[in-house]
Amino acid sequence: MHLDTLCIGIAGSFQCLQSSVSVVLWFKDGRARLRILVLTGNKWRISICAREEKAL
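The structure corresponding to this sequence follows.
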């Protein structure tokens, strides 16, 4: 599963929100942080911040 595809699916569910949403997903190797920014109106912007971190 590609990270881009997953992010798009998550963003679709937050179309109604008009605020910044932080989503953290845990993977076997580590965790990735997804930051979603939603703008007011029909236009919404997606900002992705993915970081690979080792599980402590």
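Residues 7 and 40 are 19 Å apart (CA to CA).
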